[in-house]
Fold:
Amino acid sequence: MAIASLEYSVVGGDHQRFPPVNPPAGGYLSFATVYFYGYMVSVALEGVLRFLLSKAGAESLFYIRDAFAAAVFFGFIWIDLLSTGRAKKLELFLIWFCAVYFFYSLLVGRGLFSAVFSIKMMIPVVLGISIGLRSDGRHLSYGRIYSLVFWVSVAGVFANRLYGTFPWQGYEYESAFGVISSSRLWWMEGGISRLAGFARSSVHAAAVIGCFGALALAHSKTRIGFTVVATAALGALVLTTSKGMLAAFTLLVFFCASALYFRRALALKVLLVALLFVAIMLPVLSLVLDRQDLTDAPRFLGSFVARMIHTWPNAFDASDTVWEVFFGSGFGGVGTPMLMGGDASSFNPADNFLMYTYGLFGLFGVLTVLSVFIKALLLRGNDLAIPILAVLCAFIGYGITTNHVETPIAMSIFGLVAGYVHSRKSSMSADGGVAVQATPRDRGKFL
Structure:
């Protein structure tokens, strides 16, 4: 079924009808949407699914998920070429960018397998961008699928606390990529378990709960619903021991609850700018602060102190040429992919979304990512402005101390936002904000 044109009300002008945002055949977008939602569910339940596939002797089949996601991306381009004779500039740029950076990565000394594995980790954001470019907003609305993923993840973490260790936690098996753990079993200092529920690790569980919880808060229409979501999410995040997401989500709840609805967008913009500032400045400060003073910090801040003393300064030091400062170390130059090749001895997890981006793509990559946040901050009068701002607050708040690039759910959502804000047809309001608003008949159209 063809996608209907969307009618928008532009502030300061009459109603105008714009064509849908670069629609391919409606059937293919519907198919891609179903796959995208399935992808989200598979990440939320990844620990269980990996365990079951391993028991069935089909553990390597799990990687078909990412291969199929890449096929969906290229399918969008193919459909566009068949239907309009033109492909999207942003999607063509992404292909060109990956190809150029792949060879650049090899030239600066990255291992072949490390580079390929790093590109594989980019698939969720690329798929999200493709769908976001064509989205009428449903993919960023808190629909039944996102609600299901959120509540199943929350229930999984609480069940993990009540039941104890699940069979898939700590279970290891052989795959095409070596020995793999279906779900990471680990503890913080003091023997406190980092609970993951049905996800692959507590980091993934926290990302699912935080991102979809942010969308739920933004779409809550009653105080009771808001309170239930906030309480459940915060309780589950405490059990995951993910202090970064817990802090970010607590701030998000406070800012959402303390502002009247028509001013909530302003409150969230203030919070997002503050979190971006912290995400940028903390790694920079790690270069100039007295490290001896940091060692006297409270014990529960041990992981943060380790980032300030070792992780972030070492990540900066890894860029030892001018080229790497501006363009990064390329695919395989930071994070888990380093363990897949010859760079294991210099492994650095980055543990900050912008630092990870800097390690991969240098200042060029950081500025490109920041442009997405800037476009989101300029959204004004759009029905999805508040959900987008809320989910970005959760994303970058957790990204202050987490390498989100290795978290598929977070990168899928970020890709959706990036594609959506890039594609908006808008006019500039008098105060410079992007002022676009969907008419009532276009609201609530989500699965």
